[in-house]
Structure formats: C-alpha cells, structure tokens
Amino acid sequence: DFQVVRKLITGRLFYPPETMLLRHSKPVRSLLRPTSSLMSTEAIPTSSMPFISPIENSPKSTSKYNPGIPLDTHWLESTNVNHAGLLRRASEISGRRTVKKANQAAWLLRAISCIDLTTLSGDDTQGNVRRLCAKAKNPVRRDIMEKLGVPHDFVTTGAVCVYPARVQDAVEALEGTGIPVASVATGFPSGQIKTEHKLLEIEQCVADGAREIDIVLSRDLVLQGKWDQVYEEVKLFKKACGNAEMKTILATGELATFSNVYKASLVCMMAGADFIKTSTGKEPVNATLPVSLCMLRAIRDYHDKTGFRVGYKPAGGISTAKDALTYLALVKDELGDSWLNNEMFRFGASSLLNDCERQLYHNAFGQYAADYYMPTV
Question: N or C: which end of the chain has fewer CB within 10 A?
Fold first, then answer.
C-alpha cells in the first residue's frame, strides 16, 4: 500500500511491536549505573544521560549547523571508555530480530536515500562516474518501485562521492537533480601530504562544485595525543570548505583504542565538523558496530553539552541490507528519529545499494534476483 510505505519513508521509521527491538536485557540496563557507563567523564555526568534518550524532543535539537566550540582539554582528559560495556552493548544489536514486510521496505528505501554512492578507484573514468550518477538518480528499478506502489523517482541516493579529479564530471551529470557531489580530499586516504597542499585540494574541490568534502584526519597526531594540533588543523579545513559541508574521516581502524576514537570524535566536532565518519574504506578494519556506538555516544554527549547536532557516516564493509537495517536501528536507539535522514546520517558504500535493491525485489515479487540484474555501474 503506497500510503503506508510513503508515510513510513517521509515520517518516522518505527519498529513493529512484535520485533521488540527497543527492549533491552538486564546487562544493558545495568549500563545506566555510573560505574558501568560506556563513557565515564567528570565534565558530563553520566547520571544525567539516560540510556534511551529521545534527543529529537530536546529544545536544543533544532540547530543542525555546528560552528564548533573552543577546545576543551579537561573534557578529553577526564573521559575514558568502558571497553567491556561498549562491546557488550554492541554485541546485542546485530542479534536482534529485524523489521519485516512493508516496514522493511520502508527502512530499506530510507537506507538507500542515505547512501553516499561512492567510486574511489584508480581506474575511475568519466564514463564510470556518469553511470554512477545515473544510478544515484534512479537507485531502484522502476518495476520494483511500481510493485511497491511508490513513484519511481521518489527516492534518490544522498550524494555521489568521488575523487577530486572527477568532481566536475559528477557535477555535470547531476545538474538539476539536487543530489550533492561529495569529494574526498586532504591526501585521501593516508593524509600524508603537507597541510598547505590539503587546503589547496579542498579549495579546488569546492571551486569545481563539490557541496560536501570528506577530509581525512592526521592519525599520527591522534596517536601522539596532540589534540591541540588536531583541533587547529580541522579548523583550517573547515574554513577552507566555506559553504560546503565537511565530513571528518577518523580512520578508526588506525586509532588503536576506543578512547582515541571517542576523543578524536569530540575534537573534530569542537573544531566544527558537520559529520564524523568512521573510515576511508581503505583500512584493514573499517566500520564496526562497537566503533559506531563509541562515535554515536560522542555525538550525543556533544549535543547534550552544546546543543549542536553533528551527523554520522559509517563507511567501509557495509555491504548488505541486513547491515543497513542494523546501523539504522543503532542510530534510532542512540540518537533518535531526527537523525534518521540524509541530512544527519549517511552510509559510505557502493555495493550496499545492490543488496538493498535485491531485498526490495524480494519484498515486491517474493523471490530474489541475481546481482547482475541490478548493476550499480
């Protein structure tokens, strides 16, 4: 029924009662105790942060723009991550029953609308980028959308993400669609170039038409605990982005500890990041549920303290519809419904779209189609 699916897509996603996705076991409830909280901090008492916090009801949650705040070193120094509690909470998420039928179709369409459809290969050409943009404009086959009772052009991907050299190609291909072009920058993926070169790369991407810039963090500064230098560098990147949205890639697989991930998340948000992103997709370990939980708690803590909302983007290794539903459920639990849209949440992925489309085909026709019937590029 189109009206039901449309309501689910445009309104709030919800769990049907039979799935009981918001019911937590006793070990998870015990995380409410200050001694067992995931993030122990003196700057923000954990006793004031309920486990399920409907942030969308907060009077602070109206501001999406994050201007940043002065670097708060006391906040960083007084915070530690409860490693065991974090892993326990994360382990429960993927084991839950997921949404089914019409609800699942709505969740998957929402997931598709939050994808940064990405190509970051050494053999990218103008033709590859144009085909990717065509897929971004019509991510789900027309016959599937018609069977679901949804207009074929009702959903597009959140953005198209490319290398700096391909920004102009993507901008031309997406002209008039409203779909933004995102570009990686600052010496992606390693970040091992001079700061002045990083700034020039950002400025060129913006000049070429990129509306979103995915910058990479200097992991060497994080590993040495040079938070003041991390802060100043990210502030410079933010200024160079101008009106373009800035996503900061932490490369969490190279940060060694959850404490580093949490503190790096905070520092980037203090410096004005609009999004924090897990990975480049080029590290041996990319997005994981424990790392995502750690970063989402940092976003929640920052919002509680400042009133500024920051988006979240997991990237790398998210390739199945089940993965997408799990991450959406995690964001809903931790941040609330106001983060479940492509202004506040994105997936960095390419193959994810293919599996979501196959699952929608199954929902519509009762059987699965082979991958090659739904090529991404």
Answer: N
| Strands 39-41 vs 79-81: parallel, antiparallel or unpaired | antiparallel
* Catalytic annotation present for 214: yes
For residue range 205-264, list pLDDT tens digits in order.
Answer: 999 999 999 999 999 999 999 999 999 999 999 999 999 999 999 999 999 999 999 999
Does 313 participate in catalysis according to the annotation? Answer: yes
pLDDT tens-digit map of 92-144: 887 765 688 888 999 999 999 999 999 999 999 999 999 999 999 999 999 99
Of 135, 263, 277, 332, catalytic? 277
Cβ neighbourhood burial of 70 (10 Å; 0-12, 13-18, 19+): exposed
| Residue 347 near residue 111 (C-beta atoms within 8 A) | yes
Phi, psi of 165 (to 5 degrees): -65, -20
pTM across the whole model = 0.85
Report yes or no: 227 and 263 within 8 Å, Cβ to Cβ. yes
Structure-block tokens of residue 239: 């200024």
What's the gap between Cα 330 and its chain centre? Answer: 11
Instruction: Please state, in angstroms and rounded to a whole number, the distance separating the CA atoms of residues 250 and 5.
Output: 35
- Is 277 noted as a catalytic residue in this protein? yes
Catalytic residue among 116, 135, 169, 214: 214
Q: Which of 247, 313, 333, 355 is catalytic?
A: 313
